[in-house]
Fold:
Amino acid sequence: MKLIPYGKQSIDEDDIKAVVQVLQSDWLTTGPKVAEFEEAFARHVGSKYAVAVSSGTAALHASMYALGISPGDEVVVTPMTFAASANCIVFQGGVPVFADVNHDTLLIDPEQVENKITSKTKAIIAVDYTGQPCDYDVLKDIAHRHGFFLVADACHSLGATYKGKNVGTHADLNAFSFHPVKHITTGEGGMITTDSPDLAEKMRTFRNHGITTDHRQREAQGSWFYEMVDLGYNYRLTDFQCSLGMSQLKKLPLWIDRRHEIAYRYDVAFRDIPQIKPLSVSNEVFHAYHLYVIRLNLNGTHMDRDMVFHSLREEGIGVNVHYIPVHLHPFYRNRYGTRLGLCPIAEKAYKHILSLPIHPTMSEQMIDEVIQKVKKVISI
Ligand SMILES: Cc1ncc(COP(=O)(O)O)c(C=O)c1O
Structure:
């Protein structure tokens, strides 16, 4: 049986043409499409700069590098996220400090963030979990009051707004992912937006081995000379990926509308079912609905979340669980001694959450099927 996946890319003929055109050109990587995509993305979001990299993980790593995170520095991060949001701190030798989430939204709780700040804190990473922007004004105020930076892990929230302004313009650095399940895709890929020319420049060097010029710039100058000024990585995004990204970006507004239509169908269908509770959405945000997460209240039934998960999978619904709280992964337990009880709200929520399929290629029939199977499995 073919599952209805929880997320999926949308690729059309224009996307394919955009990639093929670049494959037939002279530059497969470090060519003109990289700057074109960066400019288009910065314009779309409303930021001054955008730096393209090879994944969302690379975007987060470049952010930590640009902020100078080094061994012993602490960075406050949410546990309710994909591991990469915390791993990027570890890549730089920093220490992730987990601050618990708000019970209703499962977004990082600013009060908990304040409680975790020490003299070693150098940054906060706020994750727009499911596509709902965090309370940026409050988090930015905390970070700037203490003299450090706010990073937005916006890998779920391209297309969202907070207080009427696009995600990508609120934090000092904003990291995006173009993995196929995200809002737009380049296969693998990522971007960081910022208004700081210095931070943008640092990240451009970092994605290119720590070398200040790239191959095309040297060719234009007729020079072979280059210097590596710091330790960097090969985190470059290819030209054909950038071309695909530009083609995808044009369709983003339509896709966000479709995600809203699907979310609304689910909201209405589950509104009066006490066993199902969607996460709260603040009226200060426009949600990007990367994920549609429900919280199951199965008290007094013989079921738990895992049983519902397996039954829905058997029914052909590709439900998923986002996320195992990061501090509970064996790596974090072993290296940092993080334990159950550190973030009780996230830990409790984890046992009850389930992500339903949501992506722009879903037909009305698929949405009906998800609703009907969810109702059937929880026996309503
Ligand atoms: C919140 C979050 N941060 C970071 C990442 C990493 O992005 P990528 O898979 O492009 O490296 C993901 C990807 O799933 C994510 O969901």
In short: The mean pLDDT is 96. The pocket of pyridoxal-5'-phosphate is lined by residues 55-57, 81-82, 84-85, 127, 153, 155-156, 177, 179, 190 (CB under 6 Å).
